[in-house]
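Note to self: the last two entries modelled the partners one at a time, which told us nothing about the interface. This time every component goes in together.
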Amino acid sequence: MHDSLSQTFSALADPTRRAMLARLSLGEANVSDLAKPFLKSMSLPAVTKHIKVLERAGLITKTREAQWRPCKINGEAFRDAAEWMEHYRIFWEESFDRLDAYLKTVTKQPAKGKKNARKR
Amino acid sequence: MHDSLSQTFSALADPTRRAMLARLSLGEANVSDLAKPFLKSMSLPAVTKHIKVLERAGLITKTREAQWRPCKINGEAFRDAAEWMEHYRIFWEESFDRLDAYLKTVTKQPAKGKKNARKR
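The predicted structure of the combined assembly is written out below.
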């Protein structure tokens, strides 16, 4: 479980950490600002631990600027995961196509479907 | 940890499970064929557990055909993860660009080095 790709996917396997990344995708944030919205539902040590997991997985970098600890997204870990996903593109694109075909059916047919249902 | 995206990323966070997916990316395989290469390094229950994790995460589907249990990749879970990754494309593309620039530097320089080495 300690190879870097496993560490990246493991770090992504948590909604709090994904929410933190979503916040950072809007721009850098200090640890305290990043932590704030999560302190309503969890303790500071729990929040800090999540930030550390992201940092250890290389998904974010935390620097020091006087009393601040600005965090930002580090694209490299994302790149490795995205590269890995790329090999499976054929499978998820197939699935996109199926979803697309299905959505076309349901957006065209509901009226028809209801009609038939009423007939029975 | 039980939302489906977390379950997908968590299932991907293991080299054995990623190796199983790599095998299935080449085509369907029965549980026994899928398990075989891993039985050198782990027990059958351990291998079976990995297959179950992939199945529960929706990354593979296992069907029944007489005595066979063919497994195949299910694109939908990949699609959800790929869609999520897509939001971070700007970060990993930036990182691709940086890597590209770096590789251009290092591929330019060793050639020079080799030339000199041959001259010597």
